[in-house]
Design brief:
heterodimer; A: mainly alpha; 2 domains; B: 313 residues; mainly alpha
């Protein structure tokens, strides 16, 4: 009995500690979301002294979202969605064939090709962002969707993830198809890609979230207000200072930019966290 | 043809021509691989290799005063200027290395602490892990903006400190205070990711090892430091190197919050390069600084590898 009670006690105290830590990570998000739906003049009103209204709004309004859309944040968030979605689709179209070739096909220098691809795509993109922005300007790609999307397509992480999955598919499947006369590309499309659903979701989410995170690149390559991405537009709203900063509009935009990937993460939570965990420890 | 003789006769009869010769099949396989790798290879060359070569090229050139003239060869002039005459370069190197050293130590310990806590037996561990991971998905610039507002003098953090009777602060007033605030912001953003990576490392440790240590009479602390920690050496080394590289590229907080201040203490290298390229419109100097930046990172990461695995060489 004593041991059992002791174990429950330890389990409870670990849970309490985890709740405290989780709260430290959660409160800024909650505060950001609730600040977006309260009247602007109440954002700083209940902070000192601290009260329950510091986090919970006293009255609700969508005025901040209205103001944010007027300031062009809606357009910027839409741009972010277009760019992240485009990156996901085209990124997978590049990564799947590369991963398939590296995992399934036998050819000279296969291991070298993998190492070169993985290492160079794992170097943080920001290292080449500034010279590349100059190159892209010369190529007239500034303020265009291709200009925004292209650098995000190359993800070493996505290729690594898909390669690991493809390498674990039993080779008997492709051998049987080969005997029936199927070509390698057909085998990739018909057999390997449908099997790889979880890995495709994991790789797709990585491509989406990495692109969603970008700040330096969209800052460099898209200064036209119509082509700005969400985070850049939001930072501009804060720094503009033409009139006094509208914190309500900033919180509204911040909430939009937070909720979209959070919804994706909640839908695909399991495959994402697992894929990050397995590939991370092997990197 | 050993490959085909092992197959049953009827299947051999319908086998396509490509399968008849193993050599031909292998060449077909190589060509297919080449075809499938072409898009990724093109992306690699155009988006990674070419801009780096372009930066090196630019770093050895100087823009002509006449805009219609091609840039001319400048030798090491840009490098000489940065190393011996620039007033911002060395202070920027110093600030960056100092900040990276501080944040890497703190974040490595923090991610380990989080991973150890979240692998204890508890109720609903998945929920707490997801909540800690949540900030990873928020754009860095958005998190930074929210924290900037939270850390204002009249912000919620000072409100909380006042409520519990602690003194309030001005979070971006001095170098020390600003680094502290940056560490809080960047750790809040990224720790969930590294925690998940380390949890995977912790799960690879066989349970029997802990039990054996417990039977031998080792306490929980002793077990952790003598059994678990040595086994985590590889994932921890991976995380320390990854955190070093990641934090060298710190850009958002100084761009959004401090504009390199106070007193240039957050004029970190990537921000300084950005200023050089876009504020001063000097791509040549920016490129030279970028090359030096790359060399600094390579040297420091190389030192870390030597330090981490002296026996594995």
């Amino acid at each position: 009995m004593g041991i059992l009670r002791n174990m429950t006690l330890r389990r409870s105290s670990a849970t309490v500690a985890a709740i405290v830590v989780a709260w430290l990570f959660l409160w800024p998000v909650l505060w950001m979301v609730t600040s977006s739906i309260r009247p602007e003049n109440q954002i700083f009103a209940y902070l000192n002294p601290l009260s329950v209204f510091s986090i919970l709004p006293k009255s609700l309004t969508l005025q901040n979202f209205h103001l944010a859309f007027q300031a062009g944040v809606g357009r910027a968030v839409l741009n972010s969605v277009i760019v992240a979605a485009g990156t996901t689709v085209f990124g997978l179209l590049i990564s799947v064939p590369a991963a398939f070739a590296l995992a399934v096909l036998r050819f000279p220098l296969r291991r070298t090709a993998f190492v070169i691809l993985f290492v160079s795509f794992s170097v943080p993109f920001d290292l080449v962002a500034i010279p590349l922005s100059s190159v892209f300007r010369n190529w007239h790609l500034a303020n265009t969707y291709p200009g925004l999307i292209l650098p995000g397509l190359a993800s070493g992480f996505a290729i690594l993830l898909l390669r690991q999955f493809f390498a674990n598919v039993p080779p008997e499947l492709s051998e049987a198809a080969r005997v029936d006369g199927a070509g390698w590309i057909r085998i990739m499309i018909r057999i390997y890609t449908p099997l790889a659903r979880p890995a495709l979701i994991g790789a797709g989410l990585i491509l989406f979230i990495f692109q969603w995170q970008e700040f330096l690149w969209p800052l460099l390559i898209a200064d036209n207000p119509n082509m700005q991405l969400g985070p850049v537009a939001l930072a501009g709203l804060q720094a503009s200072g033409v009139t006094s900063t509208n914190f309500g509009a900033i919180f509204a935009g911040a909430t939009l930019l937070t909720v979209i990937p959070a919804i994706l993460l909640l839908i695909f939570q399991r495959s994402f966290v697992e894929t990050v965990a397995t590939s991370g420890s092997k990197g | 043809m050993p490959a085909t003789t092992t197959r049953p006769a009827p299947k051999r009869a319908v086998a396509p021509p490509a399968r008849r010769s193993p050599r031909r099949a292998r060449r077909g396989e190589t060509l297919t691989a080449l075809l499938l790798l072409t898009p990724a290879g093109l992306a690699l060359v155009l988006l990674r290799v070419y801009p780096m070569v372009y930066a090196v090229f630019q770093s050895f050139h100087k823009e002509s005063l006449d805009v219609f003239q091609a840039p001319h060869w400048a030798g090491f002039a840009n490098y000489r200027f940065l190393l011996f005459h620039s007033v911002t370069f060395w202070p920027s190197v110093g600030s960056t290395v100092l900040f990276v050293a501080i944040i890497v130590v703190i974040q490595t310990v923090l991610s380990l602490a989080l991973a150890v806590l979240l692998t204890q037996r508890m109720f609903l561990p998945g929920l707490w892990r997801t909540l800690i991971f949540l900030p990873v998905t928020i754009p860095v610039a958005v998190s930074t903006l929210a924290w900037q507002i939270a850390l204002r003098n009249d912000g919620i953090v000072n409100g909380f400190l006042a409520a519990v009777g602690l003194s309030q602060h001005n979070y971006f007033s001095t170098r020390g205070m600003t680094y502290f605030s940056f560490v809080v912001i960047l750790s809040w953003i990224g720790m969930g990711f590294w925690m998940i990576v380390l949890i995977a490392g912790l799960k690879d440790i066989p349970h029997e090892l802990r039990e054996a240590a417990a039977i031998d009479g080792a306490g929980r602390m002793r077990t952790f430091f003598s059994v678990i920690l040595p086994l985590l050496k590889r994932p921890l080394a991976f995380i320390a190197v990854a955190l070093t590289i990641t934090n060298f590229f710190t850009f958002v907080p100084e761009q959004v919050i401090t504009a390199g201040g106070p007193n240039n203490s957050t004029d970190f290298l990537l921000y300084d390069i950005y200023q050089q390229a876009y504020q001063n419109a000097n791509l040549n100097l920016a490129s030279a600084e970028l090359v030096l930046f790359t060399i600094i990172i390579l040297v420091i990461v190389g030192l870390e590898f030597r330090f981490i695995s002296p026996r594995e060489r």
